Amino acid sequence: MSKASKTAPKAAVGVRQSMAWIHGWLGLLAGWILFAMFLTGTASYFRPEITRWMQPEIELRPVSTATAASTAVAHLQKLAPDAEQWFISLPDARTTSTRVFIRDRPNPDPNAKPAPRRSELRLNPATGEALSARDTRGGEHFYRFHFQLQIPHPWGRWLAGLCAIAMLTAIISGVITHKRIFVDFFTLRWSKGQRSWLDAHNVSAVVALPFHAMITYTGLITLVAMYMPWPVVANYKDMSTFETAVFGAEPDAEATGRFAALTPVAPLIAQASRQWDGGSPATMVVRYPNDAAATISLFQNSKDRLNARGGSIVFSGVDGRQLSASPSPGPAAETAGVMLGLHMGNFAGPVLRWTYFLLGLAGTAMVGTGLVLWTVKRKRPNAAPFFGLRLAERLNVGAIACLPVGMAAYLLANRLLPVALPARADIEVSIMFWTWFGLAAVACLRPIRRAWTETLAIGAAAFLALPIVNALTTTRGFFTSLAKGDMLFPAFDLAMIATGALLAFASWRTATPSARPVRERAATRAPLQGAADAA
Amino acid sequence: MQLEPALLSYAGLACLALTTTRLRRDIALRPLPPVGALQALAVAILAIAAWQAVHLFGPYQGPVAFIGMLAGAGLLLVLLLSRWPQAAILAAIGASVLAVLALTIAAAP
Known about the structure:
The complex is a heterodimer. Chain A is α+β, with helices and mostly antiparallel strands.
């Protein structure tokens, strides 16, 4: 008995220590990328809204899905009646314009050069007229960067996957390492150096733990077929056979070459909506329009449903007959769809989307405080920091303080670059990265504490400048928009001001480490301080 | 209004926070209810919050909404407690009043 009682605590300490080692090192190595993934991923919960903000020329009133589909088809009939396929992304309350892609039929002459790919068109859903707006990647850029990291395919996704695995490992090892999860649940002490960073890391991690675990796991699982293709490879001839088996996609028929007028689409949308218990389509794909073999496929949107993958119905494009419908998904497909839905949060209305956003910020804070904690823990007073510590400190400044500046620069570039500049969308993206990495490099020239203060202050200034620049360069400034009843732009301005204020607060805190010294606090808030000391 | 689960989660978690030794000793509000009563109250309020989440967001999104709002309210509570503990607890009373008002209005014919 005595032997057992001696070894048991020793083993427990050993496990906790090794978990702490894994937690610290995996967290550090993946942390800088994870911070960027968390922050841009969190911004992506407002992907359509960011895109709308970045194309201020487009100001539309919502119309019914059937109207938008009909006007888009009328426009495409004029523009490309002989296309192979029209891909029509229908508007909703968040994405107000109709987006269409046209794929031309391949030239029958095998020696002919393939026709250049047509670019995406945006249409006014009420009239079907093409909209012209500044070229931008919009919110899509943050979303893509969040899991592709602006690295050529497939390496970006692989790196993101590795970081997600590190994150999952860090979550599990972190929970095992944390001795006082429940006791310290409500504990956050300011101005106490390492203790404060540990508190902040613990609180941001523990209080939102279900979210962090869910978002990491579902993020990883979303790309699992890419990371682990072998079950599909072993059981199916190719990827399309697998997709047909799981999602019930029908093989495409060939065009007949005989003309047949395309059936009106509005009744098909009404019919689909009835079958989906009031759901509406997000996408309409018309294959071989005006051919006797034309088909019109409708794909359900994921609004209000946890499963991100909705059903689909294929109609004949000639007489509107229903040809097929996707089978109700099996348990595996349903699970995969729900995981994807939980990750992307497309089902969420405004209240839940903001909840997602705030929890995403908590995740970003968890990674950021963890990164800072790693360096604070290793700093020795009166000793020069070793190379690894200096490197980690610089990378922390580069990731935590400089990425927000890059994101603000991306938004500022959208307003300040000439509207008709060629390759404008790419330049906006380049400006984000040049600002981010350039500022991180310049910050290396400054002493570390000044580097924090200055980069955070630049970030604050950049975000606070956004509402002003927006008001000066567009007709949709805060008060003008408010007067028109357009809530998107004022809300965006307020979010930018809040972000700027947060960065300004952080800058101020790093600038004045002794602004609220422990002793002074002890004098003004004696009871709290005493308790903290006792603990 | 859809925010009832968040308001109630805040109130429920504030009750739980008031059961911790540190806060009981430091907070200037007196008299404090006994720990057992606060725990029971917290369970009751959080149960109503969960029920409200399912009621407002449906059986599938409800649990997601409850867990998310519980975490969000928890973060806000901890941040406020760390700076202004008394105000954080008083805000919990305000949140409960708001939630009860919203529930009463929703229940009115």
